[in-house]
# Entry
Amino acid sequence: MKTVKTPYLPVLDTLELSAVGNLMETEACRAYIDVVNWPSYPYKPIVAFDIARTDQNLYIRYFVKGNSLKAVHDKDDSPVHQDSCVEFFMQQTGEADYMNFEFNCIGTCDAARRQSREQKQSLTAEEYALIRRYSSLKNKPFAEKRGLYSWELLVSIPFSLMGLDSGNLPQKIKANFYKCADDTVYPHFLSWHPIDLETPDFHCPPFFGEVYL
# Structure
C-alpha cells in the first residue's frame, strides 16, 4: 500500500495562499499521480502534488503538464470532472463514508460527504467558502484549448470540514489523489494509488492509500 507523510508547517496559515507554494516547494512532501489503471484511456499527462499541514488545515499543491486545457465550470457544486480536473478523496480509518474534493484548473470545487457514488450530501455554500484555492490560471472560465499547457492549483481544506478534530488528529487517514478530464479531447483517469477495477471509477475506498498526519 502506498503511503505519504504530511509535514507539519504551521507557518502556512500565516501566508497568502499565492505565496504558500514557495515554502511547499522545499518543505512539503511530493508524490506523483501517475498510475494509468485502464488501458482504454492511455493518455498520461505529467501530474505531481505536494502535501503539508498546519493545526487546522491540509494543504495540497498540484502540478499538471499536458495536452489541452478546459475550465467551463465556474460555480461550486458543478461537474468539474468534465474539465481539466484534480481530485482528493479521503476516508477516516474504520468508517464506511468518505469525502470527495474535486477541483478544475481554475479552482472551482465539487465536494460532498458520501456513502457511495450515488448517495451523497453536497457541501453547503458556507462550507465551500472555507476551502481556499489559488490557481496559476486565475479563476475565469474558458472553453477547451488545444496545445501543451502547464498549471498549478493550491488548495487549503480545513480538517473540520473532513470531520476531523484538529485538536486530536488521527495518526493517518485513507485517501487517494486523482487527475481526470472526462469531457475533453484527451480523456484520462490517473490515480496516485492503483485501482484494481475493470472500468474507471474513483469512488472506491478499498483502493485508497494512507496519508500520515
Observations:
- The CA atoms of residues 12 and 23 lie 8 Å apart.
- The radius of gyration is 16 Å.
- DSSP finds two helices and 14 strands in the chain.
- Helices lie at 17-27, 125-128.
